[in-house]
Write a structure and sequence with these properties.
By secondary structure, the protein is α/β, with parallel strands linked by helices. The protein is about 45% helix and about 20% strand. It has a single domain (about 5-160), classed as 3-Layer(aba) Sandwich (Rossmann fold). The longest helix has 17 residues, at about 95-110. GO terms for molecular function: ATP binding; pantetheine-phosphate adenylyltransferase activity.
Length: about 160
């Protein structure tokens, strides 16, 4: 049986922490879908199309990783993708409490979907998309937190602002 995992998120922007989890998951599963959530309630800096493109560039060399934008319920998206595993990154205890609630809800909505929590590599535990945007917005160096093409996209966004 081939096992497919979904790693969902807003990825606004994609960070090295996200990339690390995807690459590690790609070694564990037959297929990994990076599900880029539209999530307009978060008022993302990048459009859905831009976030999908940035993620596609990051994983272009990974044959078993596919990037797909989606809106709506994650549990439904997982069914449509025939995924068995929902992959979530957990950086701290506060993340776990929230993720535990999500996992329980998703299990109710899609009993065939099992949640798997992965911790980031130690060098990435403090990185969040929100912090990266703030540092870049104020002219700080984010090169060690995001892939180079994402850094350029961030700089271009903030240059226009």
């Amino acid at each position: 049986m081939k096992v497919k995992a979904i790693y969902p998120g807003t990825f606004d922007p994609l960070t090295n922490g996200h990339s690390d989890l995807v690459l590690r998951a790609a070694r564990l599963f037959d297929a990994v879908v990076v599900g880029v959530a539209a999530n307009p309630s978060k008022q993302p800096l990048f459009s859905l199309a831009e976030r999908v493109k940035l993620a596609e560039q990051a994983f272009a060399d990974c044959a078993n990783v596919q990037v797909i934008g989606f809106s709506g319920l994650l549990a439904q998206f997982a069914k449509e993708q025939h995924a068995q595993v929902l992959l979530r990154g957990v950086r701290a205890v506060a993340d776990y409490e929230y993720e535990f609630q999500l996992a329980s809800m998703n299990r109710q909505l899609n009993p065939e979907l099992d949640s798997l929590f992965m911790t980031p590599s130690e060098k990435n535990t403090f990185i969040s998309s929100t912090l990266v945007k703030e540092v870049c917005r104020h002219g700080g160096d984010v090169s060690s937190f995001v892939p180079a093409h994402v850094e350029r996209a961030l700089q271009a966004k903030f240059a226009k602002a």
